[in-house]
Specification:
- It is a single chain.
- With 411 residues, this protein is mostly helical.
- Among the domains are: 79 residues; 144 residues, no CATH class.
- The chain is 41% helix and 6% strand.
- It has 18 helices and seven strands.
- The strands form three sheets. The protein has a three-stranded antiparallel β-sheet. Strands 4-5 form a two-stranded antiparallel sheet. The chain has a two-stranded antiparallel sheet with strand order 6-7.
- α16 crosses α17.
- The chain binds zinc ion (ZN) (2 copies).
- The site of one zinc ion has 7 residues, from loops.
């Protein structure tokens, strides 16, 4: 093959393959069959590692060995056309970055994106983009739950075919024209998008524009990973359980509104948790686990995806609020006696639970209860008073990037 299309801005790998197939008059399925023939000539093991469907082709979908998938795509990039195909440049990989300690992420063109932000069902489209572009294509951004509007046309992306009501997914239909029922994308009606949704799409695509939400934390973050981290944090900690914890047109307004009044909204949320604990508690705070008051706050807020205060505004605000409470004259100061478990103490000190066991052994980190010398350290056991642990952090564990001065005024 002599020709190859150039990738378009932020184009998804699947969209690129569809255009490549079009160029030679193939369907995507025929293109993938051709891929298999090329791989077979080199090594049958490689051909077996490449799935037959367009929507499973990306590197992140490789179940067992993604290195084998990379090898396949690398080889195809070399052998398919005269010039090398930009396949791995467009691919989505698994990333080793974890958000909030447990959320896996995917890597695409320099970005670590929480996996839960990537759509599994429909991939919506902007009909106006299809109408306007000489070469219609799908940008990878449309695969993200956060992108619900077209930032260029300020309209909502269309998720469902208006004629047959099927969810749109160009990877399943294998074309960049329209729904499988024949309705073409460019004739699908689209609704005007609320301002915050196209501005969010703008922000996710790192477009520099003036935003009305000047006081909103989300729109002021410099790094897109901090934006992902803050939104993920909202959905895994601040939002009500149930439906409110998944990104949708209905829940995003609450998420954005929460960050309008930052950090007052966080402080109010935490204050409410403390007051509830005081009201319901039938034991003293010195016997109350920290996580029975605040849930998994320290664990969830630690890596968003960074740990230092300069690039984790959520963690910084939490430290500032806990610090202020513990040193206040009010009953809120009681939380200083609540007990952290080993994992939480590790999160507060920015270290590992093994290190916490050692600090305990050496008497540096005092426990609220006596531990038998022979007992094995159980990191799940609430053991370390918040205020004492906080003081250990102040004395020994601050650093240039995670320092009390970052949230306290200097005077
Ligand atoms: Zn558009
Ligand atoms: Zn349809």
């Amino acid at each position: 093959m002599l020709l190859r299309p150039d990738p378009l801005p932020a184009e998804s790998l699947e969209s690129y393959f569809i255009r490549l197939a079009d160029l030679y008059g193939y369907t995507p399925k025929q293109l993938i069959e051709r891929f298999h023939i090329i791989l077979d000539e080199v090594d049958q093991k490689l051909s077996g590692a490449l799935p037959g469907n367009l929507w499973q082709l990306n590197v992140c979908h490789a179940r067992v060995s993604s290195s084998l998938r990379v090898e396949c795509l690398e080889l195809l990039a070399e052998k398919m056309c005269k010039g090398r195909l930009p396949v791995l440049e467009l691919a989505v990989f698994r990333s080793k970055t974890r958000y909030a300690s447990q959320h896996h992420s995917l890597y695409w063109q320099g970005l670590d994106i929480p996996r839960s932000f990537v759509r599994k069902g429909s991939i919506p489209v902007c009909p106006k983009c299809f109408e306007e572009h000489e070469k219609p294509y799908v940008p990878f951004y449309w695969h993200l739950h956060l992108v619900r509007a077209c930032h260029k046309h300020k309209c909502m992306l269309v998720e469902q075919c208006p004629d047959c009501l099927q969810e749109l997914n160009y990877m399943r239909t294998g074309n960049l024209k329209g729904c499988s029922c024949g309705k073409v994308y460019e004739t699908m009606p689209s609704k005007e998008a609320p301002e915050f949704l196209w501005q969010l799409a703008d922000k996710v695509q790192e477009e520099k524009t003036d935003h009305a939400h000047s006081g909103n934390l989300l729109f002021n973050l410099d790094d897109i990973h901090q934006l992902f981290g803050a939104i993920l944090w909202f959905y895994s900690y601040a939002a009500e359980r149930g439906n409110q914890r998944s990104i949708s047109d209905d829940t995003l307004p609450d998420c954005i509104a929460f960050f309008d009044q930052w950090p007052q909204s966080l402080n109010a949320l935490l204050k409410e948790k403390i007051e509830t604990a005081i009201m319901l508690s039938d034991r003293r705070f010195s016997e109350t686990p920290f996580n029975s008051i605040f849930g998994r706050i320290l664990i969830v807020s630690r890596c968003l995806p960074n740990k230092d205060f300069n690039s984790n505004p959520i963690l910084k605000a939490i430290f500032a609020y806990l610090d202020a409470c513990m040193h206040s004259e009010s009953e809120l100061s009681e939380i200083g006696y609540s007990l952290l478990n080993g994992y939480e103490a590790a999160a507060l000190l920015d270290t590992y639970d093994e290190q916490v066991a050692r600090l305990l052994d050496e008497g540096i980190l005092p426990a609220a209860k006596r531990i038998k010398n022979t007992a094995v350290f159980d990191p799940k056991r609430p053991l370390f008073p918040l205020k004492t642990t906080f003081n250990v952090w102040l004395m020994r564990f601050q650093s240039r990037l995670s320092n009390r001065h970052i949230y306290l005024p200097r005077w």
